[in-house]
Write a structure and sequence with these properties.
By secondary structure, the chain is α/β, with parallel strands linked by helices. The chain has three domains: about 15-75; about 90-135, no CATH class; about 160-315, 2-Layer Sandwich (Nucleotidyltransferase, domain 5), CATH 3.30.420. Helix content is about 35%, strand content about 10%. It has helices spanning about 15-25, 30-35, 40-50, 65-75, 90-100, 105, 115-125, 165-170, 215-225, 265-275, 285-295; strands at about 50-55, 60-65, 160, 175-180, 190-195, 205-210, 230-235, 250-255. The strands form two sheets. The chain has a six-stranded mixed beta sheet with strand order 3-8-7-4-5-6, sandwiched between helices.
Length: about 325
């Protein structure tokens, strides 16, 4: 009977190569080895042919060498991916944009640039001088939701996000902001208050002296004099439990431990972290303004690579 194997993970690992070498010395057949590894027997046949070494000059025969097979595999992997599109000019542009905190996906939208997967490949292979994995934006990971149970907001009699009108949920209108704090470091002192418009992703950032509710309200009072704020969506941090003292618009509180309910704001915070990583000790208002402008001029795939600042609706946010 024909056996069927899943092709997922079909590449043979270094550990498996040493097992193949051991089992061949024990006299096992290729089909038997294939069953032990969960591979197709033809995969094992091809692997052994590629890894043969000639020992006839020592009076022996041809034998499979795991070390030779692994060295050949590593060499062939270097050739994976397109190489014909690489040029010095493209390397220089990619290096400049990576150092300017652009992601490979944004760089790929520039004229005469390869796809973002190709840019990642070039960086991983060391083809972009001076750029390595450490210069890339940290990978995005999704965290599983531990429980489907929705805990009520921390503040008594507060509006839950479940009560937020559908037009806000569907992002049909400007002026509905998500609000959060970006903690610069664990010590007491300066923090960043961030507001993200749900429709346009326009970002407002203010440097505040600490993470108290009073500092948040003082900054928010100033912000609402310059921007149209129709509603706020906040988490349950103690710094946001007195927002109704500074602003009269509806305030909706997300469920505890549900940061995904303020996804636009969380994504904007990740952009801020490109410039102010965790542990930053000193930030000036001018630096904050520069980062705010950078974010609002950063092209967004969501808007067909138009930046929030160039969206026509943004003009209506300013009072």
């Amino acid at each position: 009977m024909q056996e069927h194997y899943n092709t997922k993970g079909k590449h043979i690992t270094e550990k498996e190569r040493y097992l193949i070498e051991k089992w061949k010395k024990e006299g096992k057949s290729n089909r038997e080895i294939a069953r032990l590894l969960g591979k197709n027997h033809q995969t094992i046949n091809n692997e052994i042919k590629r890894g043969l070494i000639d020992l006839s000059f020592h009076g022996g025969t041809k034998e499979y060498s795991a070390q030779k097979a692994q060295n050949d595999y590593n060499h062939l992997r270097l050739a994976v991916g397109r190489t014909d599109t690489w040029t010095v000019e493209k390397e220089n542009v990619i290096r400049e944009k990576i150092m300017d905190k652009y992601s490979p996906e944004m760089i790929s939208q520039l004229p005469d640039m390869p796809s973002f997967t190709t840019i990642y490949t070039w960086i991983y292979k060391g083809w972009i001088a001076g750029i390595s994995r450490k210069h890339l934006i940290y990978p995005r990971k999704t965290k599983p939701i531990k429980s489907n149970e929705k805990r009520p907001p921390r503040k008594t009699n507060a509006l839950s996000i479940e009560q937020r009108p559908q037009e806000i949920n569907e992002r049909k209108e400007i002026g509905h902001f998500e609000i959060d704090l970006v903690i610069l470091n664990k010590k007491r002192g300066q923090q960043l208050l961030t507001l993200t418009d749900r429709k346009t992703r326009y970002e407002i950032i203010r440097l505040i002296p600490d993470k108290t509710a009073q500092s948040v309200n003082t900054a928010l009072t100033s912000i609402q004099q310059d921007y149209l704020i129709r509603s706020l969506t906040a988490d349950n941090g103690s710094e946001f439990l007195r927002l109704d003292e500074a602003i009269t618009c509806p305030i909706y509180y997300a469920h505890p431990f549900s940061s995904y309910e303020r996804g636009s704001n969380e994504n904007a915070n990740r952009l801020i972290r490109r410039w102010f990583p965790k542990g930053t000790t000193t930030v000036t208002p001018n630096e904050v303004t520069a980062v705010e402008q950078w974010i609002n001029r950063y092209p967004r795939k969501l808007f067909n690579y138009v930046c929030p600042y160039d969206l026509p609706e943004v003009a209506n946010l300013l009072l």
